């Protein structure tokens, strides 16, 4: 009952007018079998009464009524289809927007990395690419169908009862048992689908990966196309086999359902025929009852509505669970949390420890670090030392497992409103995203919702060294940065990095106070990288910059360099101080300087960069 009410509410949410119209049409449709039975009965009665005596005019009325029933049936069918489509799209559009909003509302990303959360999202997103998956819109319409079916069954039973009341339970009870059994069969499909979510997700991702241009390169070069397709097929077969097996059992079950429902219908037909022969009813009544009985048999038919209702409700229930999980998360920190005060480029990590959810290894372990206002701070360390993790904590994407991060005048980052904090910082991640949007959109995403200022856009492009790249694009700023889009182009790795740097600088020049760059120049040639940093140093004003880089030739320009190792800062100082101390930084620098001089001596003027 609760589910039915919920589906009605969902239906109502599509718009009162459309909900009422579609309900009326569905009801009319369901009354048509009963109306047909009565009209056919009336027609047969009149024809029989004529008994070859002429007077054809007496059958005109039932004939006209029959035509009217046919017309109404046809009109209802024609009108209901677009209305149902509209209703479904409205409901599903709103549902998908709600799911996206909910998932996006989480201030951190730790939940998104959990398989359980991904399963919930898959269940809730109502993307009916699977046999058993249905959308809330489809479920609402199916719920309406079922309610209308029930009314249609009552009307048809009234026609049948004209002959004898006991025919109603005789036909109805086996049919209702069939409905129940079918419902249980469909429930098994939904449960099976739910149990297979993990494989489904893996197969989906694998398929998406295989058709992407990036993987297309690897696939061709290494020649693993056949292997990849075989793997995809195997995943598909493994997933489908239990569904086929369930179908096989289902087909056998259908025979039992037929044996349950058909004999009562035959008994009813025989009883009505015998009764008519014995003068218990007219031939017309017999025709009406038989027409209605057959309609009843088909009305309680295939159980598709039951599956649709069940599967669509599944998406709504998954949304509830998702709201529970993400809703809680979205409320940490509380929405009314204060905005921070003081300079955003003043940050202190106090004994910060961090272990990724679901793992046991502490990536950061009692880390103390101060990022001073206006300072250019470089963080270096070996692969896996935790540099990117530190940046994610600084961006508020994860909360420290222990310790705290104080920002501005000493406010705990965990208690601040995440959005307000992020407006004050500008971050380039190592694994940045290449958005299939225009060059302008790719950059202005750094400050969304604000009318782009062309002067600032140009300044950011100039400082990131993007201007020469833009000059070569066919449509300048408006060129889509994706080969798959009409008129689009793809950029080289270094050019993409310049786009992303431009985005970060654009955010910096429009209000951010702390620029965080995680390997921002790994793909840039040495000269471009040098020029970019020169300009950044000139134009950053009072903004702080945190730079992560393995290129120590870049890092040496920083005001201060810290070395991260074993989850803590192990060395800190200017380049000269660290070289003088002869620690790990000095050793790393010596190795790189030696390799650099060997590898680039002929292309870079001596002493220009080192
Ligand atoms: N989302 C994650 N879930 C679990 N563990 C993670 C996750 N991201 C990173 N790690 C682990 O955390 C450790 C630190 O990774 P991180 O990316 O911070 O290192 P890094 O210093 O930036 O390395 P690199 O120089 O190679 O970029 C690694 O052992 C890594 O496996």
Automatic annotation (TrEMBL):
<dbReference type="GO" id="GO:0016887">
    <property type="term" value="F:ATP hydrolysis activity"/>
</dbReference>
<dbReference type="InterPro" id="IPR027417">
    <property type="entry name" value="P-loop_NTPase"/>
</dbReference>
<feature type="transmembrane region" description="Helical">
    <location>
        <begin position="7"/>
        <end position="25"/>
    </location>
</feature>
<feature type="transmembrane region" description="Helical">
    <location>
        <begin position="56"/>
        <end position="76"/>
    </location>
</feature>
<dbReference type="GO" id="GO:0005524">
    <property type="term" value="F:ATP binding"/>
</dbReference>
<feature type="domain" description="ABC transporter">
    <location>
        <begin position="347"/>
        <end position="591"/>
    </location>
</feature>
<keyword id="KW-0812">Transmembrane</keyword>
<dbReference type="InterPro" id="IPR003439">
    <property type="entry name" value="ABC_transporter-like_ATP-bd"/>
</dbReference>
<keyword id="KW-0547">Nucleotide-binding</keyword>
<dbReference type="Pfam" id="PF00005">
    <property type="entry name" value="ABC_tran"/>
</dbReference>
<keyword id="KW-1133">Transmembrane helix</keyword>
<keyword id="KW-0067">ATP-binding</keyword>
<feature type="transmembrane region" description="Helical">
    <location>
        <begin position="255"/>
        <end position="277"/>
    </location>
</feature>
<dbReference type="GO" id="GO:0034040">
    <property type="term" value="F:ATPase-coupled lipid transmembrane transporter activity"/>
</dbReference>
<dbReference type="GO" id="GO:0005886">
    <property type="term" value="C:plasma membrane"/>
</dbReference>
<dbReference type="InterPro" id="IPR036640">
    <property type="entry name" value="ABC1_TM_sf"/>
</dbReference>
<feature type="transmembrane region" description="Helical">
    <location>
        <begin position="163"/>
        <end position="183"/>
    </location>
</feature>
<keyword id="KW-0472">Membrane</keyword>
<dbReference type="InterPro" id="IPR003593">
    <property type="entry name" value="AAA+_ATPase"/>
</dbReference>
<protein>
    <submittedName>
        <fullName>ATP-binding cassette subfamily B protein</fullName>
    </submittedName>
</protein>
<dbReference type="InterPro" id="IPR039421">
    <property type="entry name" value="Type_1_exporter"/>
</dbReference>
């Amino acid at each position: 009952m609760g589910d039915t009410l919920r589906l009605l509410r969902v239906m109502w949410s599509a718009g009162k007018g459309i909900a009422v119209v579609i309900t009326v049409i569905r009801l009319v449709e369901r009354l048509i079998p009963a109306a047909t039975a009565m009209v056919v009965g009336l027609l047969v009665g009149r024809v029989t009464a004529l008994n070859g005596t002429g007077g054809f005019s007496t059958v005109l009325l039932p004939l006209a009524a029959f035509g009217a029933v046919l017309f109404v049936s046809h009109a209802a069918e024609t009108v209901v289809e677009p209305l149902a489509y509209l209703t479904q799209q409205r409901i599903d559009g709103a549902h998908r927007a709600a799911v996206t909003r909910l998932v996006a509302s989480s201030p951190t990303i730790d939940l998104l990395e959990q398989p359980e959360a991904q399963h919930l999202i898959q269940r809730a997103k109502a993307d009916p690419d699977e046999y058993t998956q249905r959308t809330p819109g489809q479920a609402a319409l199916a719920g309406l169908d079922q309610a209308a079916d029930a009314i249609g069954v009552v009307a048809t039973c009234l026609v049948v009862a004209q002959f004898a009341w006991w025919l109603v339970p005789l036909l109805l009870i086996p049919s209702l048992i069939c409905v129940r059994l079918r419902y249980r069969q469909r429930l098994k499909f939904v449960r099976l689908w739910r149990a297979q979510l993990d494989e489904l997700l893996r197969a989906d991702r694998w398929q998406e990966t295989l058709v992407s241009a990036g993987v297309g390169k690897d696939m061709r070069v290494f020649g693993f196309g056949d292997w990849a397709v075989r793997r995809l097929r195997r995943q598909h077969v493994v997933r489908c086999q239990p569904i086929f097996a369930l179908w096989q059992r289902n087909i056998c079950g259908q025979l039992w359902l037929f044996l349950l429902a058909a004999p009562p219908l035959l008994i009813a037909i025989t009883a009505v025929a015998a009764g008519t022969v014995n003068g218990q009813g007219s031939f017309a009544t017999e025709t009406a009852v038989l027409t209605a009985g057959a309609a009843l048999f088909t009305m309680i038919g295939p159980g598709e509505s039951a599956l649709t209702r069940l599967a669509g409700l599944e998406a709504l229930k998954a949304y509830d669970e998702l709201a529970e999980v993400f809703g809680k998360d979205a409320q940490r920190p509380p929405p009314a949390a204060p905005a921070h005060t003081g300079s955003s480029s003043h940050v202190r990590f106090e004994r910060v420890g961090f272990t990724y959810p679901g793992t046991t290894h502490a990536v950061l372990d009692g880390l103390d670090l101060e990022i001073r206002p206006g300072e250019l701070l470089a963080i270096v360390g070996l692969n896996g030392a935790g540099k990117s993790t530190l940046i994610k904590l600084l961006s508020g994407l994860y909360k420290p497992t222990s310790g705290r991060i104080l920002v501005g005048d000493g406010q705990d980052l965990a208690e601040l409103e995440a959005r307000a904090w992020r407006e004050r910082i500008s971050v380039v991640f190592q694994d940045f995203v290449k958005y299939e949007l225009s060059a302008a959109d790719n950059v202005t995403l750094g400050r969304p919702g604000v009318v782009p200022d062309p002067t600032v856009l140009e300044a950011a492009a100039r400082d990131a060294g993007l201007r020469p790249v833009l000059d070569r694009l066919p449509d300048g700023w408006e060129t889509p940065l994706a080969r798959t889009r009409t008129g689009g182009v793809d950029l080289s790795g270094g050019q993409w990095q310049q786009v992303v740097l431009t985005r970060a600088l654009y955010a910096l020049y429009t209000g951010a106070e702390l620029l965080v760059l995680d390997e921002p120049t790994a793909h840039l040639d040495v000269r471009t990288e040098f020029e970019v940093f020169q300009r950044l140093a000139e134009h950053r004003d009072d903004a702080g910059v945190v730079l992560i880089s393995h290129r120590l030739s870049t890092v040496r320009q920083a005001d201060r360099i810290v070395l991260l190792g074993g989850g803590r800062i192990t060395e800190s100082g200017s380049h000269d101080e660290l070289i003088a101390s002869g620690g790990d930084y000095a050793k790393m620098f010596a190795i790189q300087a030696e390799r650099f001089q060997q590898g680039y001596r002929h292309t870079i003027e001596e002493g220009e960069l080192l």
